[in-house]
Each structure stands twice: as C-alpha cells, then as structure tokens.
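In response to reviewer comment 3 from the previous cycle, which asked for concrete evidence that the modeling workflow produces usable outputs, we include below a single protein chain processed end to end. The sequence was submitted unchanged, and the resulting structure tokens are shown without manual editing.
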Amino acid sequence: MPLSMLATPDSRFSLPQQVEAVCIKLVARRGLVAGLSAPSAAILLHFVLEAEGVLSQVPFWPWFTSLCLALGIQLLVDAWVLVHKPDARMLQRWPQLNAASLVLVGLAWGSAGWWLHSSSPLCTMMLYLVLAGVGALVMIVQSAFMLAVIAFEVALLLPGMLHGLFGVGRMAQYVGVASLLYFCLLCLYGWVVHRQLRHGVRASVQASLLNEDLMAANVRASNALQALKREHQQLQQALQTIERMAHIDELTQLPNRRAAMAALKLLVDAEQPAALVLLDVDHFKQVNDRYGHHAGDAVLRGVAERLLACLRQDDLLARFGGEEFVVILPHTEPADAHSLAQRLCDALAAQALPVEGASLAVTASFGVTPHQAGEALHGWLARADEAMYQSKHAGRNRVTLLP
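The workflow returned the following structure tokens.
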C-alpha cells in the first residue's frame, strides 16, 4: 500500500508521533499478511518430511501447534492496531508488544532446527532454507522497527548458534557460524532498509501536511478557477468552430481544399511515398442546369458518401473545389493507387444516385499520379490535373495513371 494512503495528518500528534503511527499501521498490515501465509511454509516442510519418509521420526505436529499459537498471538497484536485509531498509549506500547510477540514467533520457527532435525540431508537443507527465507521476510516486514527485527532474528537463529557452540562435529560448527553471519547480515541490511523507510514515511507525512494546507488554499481559489474554466471552454468551443469552418467543407462535411493542401504539403516536406487521385464529376453542369442546384448539392453529397465507403482508414478524401475531389493515398505504390481509383470509378458508375425523386447516373474522370522525389507540390498537382483531363478527353468515366 502506498505510504500516502497511510500518512493521514492528525492534529493530535506531533510530526515524530505521526511518523510512528504510520509505521505502526504499515507494519501491522504487512505483518497480518505475512502471519496468515506463514503456515504454508510449515506445510511445505511437512510434505518434504513425508516424502523423505522421516515424518514419523520428528514431532512435527507439536511443533506446528506451537508455531500456530505464536502466530496467533502476533496476529492479535497486529489486528489490535488495525481496528483501533492510533493514540498515545498505542504509540508507546505497541512496539514493545510487537517485539515480544515476534520473540515467540522466532523461537517457534527457530526450534524447528531441533524438533524437525532428521537424518535426511534434503530435509535438513529445506529446513534451513525455509528458516532463512522466514528471517529475510520478517526483516523486510518489520524493518520500520529495528527492535522487532533484532528480537525476531535472535530468537530465530539462536538455536542454530547454540548448536554451533555445543553441537558435536564440523557440521554443527558450520551451522553455528552460518547462523551468526546470517544474523549480522540481516541486521545490517535491516538497518539500511529501516533508515530508508523511516525517511520515506517522514517525507510522506510532511507531504500530507503540506497537501492539507494546499487544499485549503485551493478551496479559496476554486470559484475563480471555475469561472476561468467556463471562459476557457467557451473560447475552446469558439476556436473549434472556427477551425472546423476553416478546414471542413460545409456541404459534404469532408476536409476542404485548405485541409487537403496542408496534408499534401506535409507529405511533400517529409519526402514520404504517396499517390494523389484527382477526380471531377462528369457533366455536373448539366445536372445543375436541368435539376437545379439542390440536385447538384445532393449529387456531391452522394459522391462523397460513395467514395468514403471504398477508402482505407489512412486515406484522405477532400472536396477540392466545385465538383472536384482529391484522394490522398500515403505509403501507396502507383499500381495500388491505380487499382483503388478504378474501384472508386466503378463504384460511382455501378448504381445511380437518387436525387430529387429521380435516379441520376453519375460518373467521374480520375487522374492518378505518384509523388516523385524532390517534386514540388504545385508540380505534383499539375501532373494529377493533367492525368484527370486525359481521362476527360478519352471519354470520361475512366482512370488515367501518369507516373
């Protein structure tokens, strides 16, 4: 759990007392989780002893019972903190209670070196590995209180050290020396973690106190800020409307010539491979003259919808002016651009457009040209325009590719 969630300012306490309260809560939460999961390590030892066939040689269940009793006491000490609000009495008594309960847990774990000692090398190795892991885990969990760390590690490793002093054989000496070295290592590392954790908690509490002051100042400024936000939103909406009017064709709701030219300029400046399709609706003037401008507008909207349905996600369709449209195809080879333009041409001619109660056959002439390296924008547009007019002169309703 982040320290900021525990470091709630309490005006009853001084800064050191608040740091102590946060550390107590933090260790109690961690200790509760560690205590509830500890029996699983003991069950692992049971399985190893049983697999090695030496379970009947050791008093596993009496030892396990004593371990559970010690863990129960430790869980009660942690739960007391979690269900009560910190007060001066808790700040004074809990560290001593915690250390005393950890001595019981450490003795219960450490006694496994005597109670569960067997003739199986695998069981002995697993036993000391579990004890080493328990020692490291408790050092991390309890690092906010060095008294608790030292009390537990002494209780845990004392049997191993005594075994080295009074045991017989070189192995007993190895176990004793290893226990002593491991104890020193855990205490040293625990002290480093202790200092870092305490420093972090203190900084978190100070930040919470500062945040409380800032929140009060923020409340005083909130009304003015809300007014500024409303004005800002109104300005943003006005800017979006202006932006839309400047780059969107009102009739077809497609990007207009300005937006298309900006997109083309980006492609030219970036020297990216791309193709350009320029198309002009055939005999559009006749539609306006015969059916009126409302019909012409409907034709342009229908052409836009039909073209959009055939394009890819990255393609850009824009109304270039009058009855002209432009399709910008980034990262497209000339042959692929020609194929796409042919599909657009076929899609327009395949079905008449319903306009003003009539069905009008609508076609368009297409010019396709890729962008050449180093070519200026006006040169690219001129070649696309030339390709489109070649389609017009060749009979309309067709596609011309000009490499």
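The CA atoms of residues 99 and 252 lie 78 Å apart. We consider this sufficient to address the reviewer's concern, and the full set will be provided in the supplementary archive.
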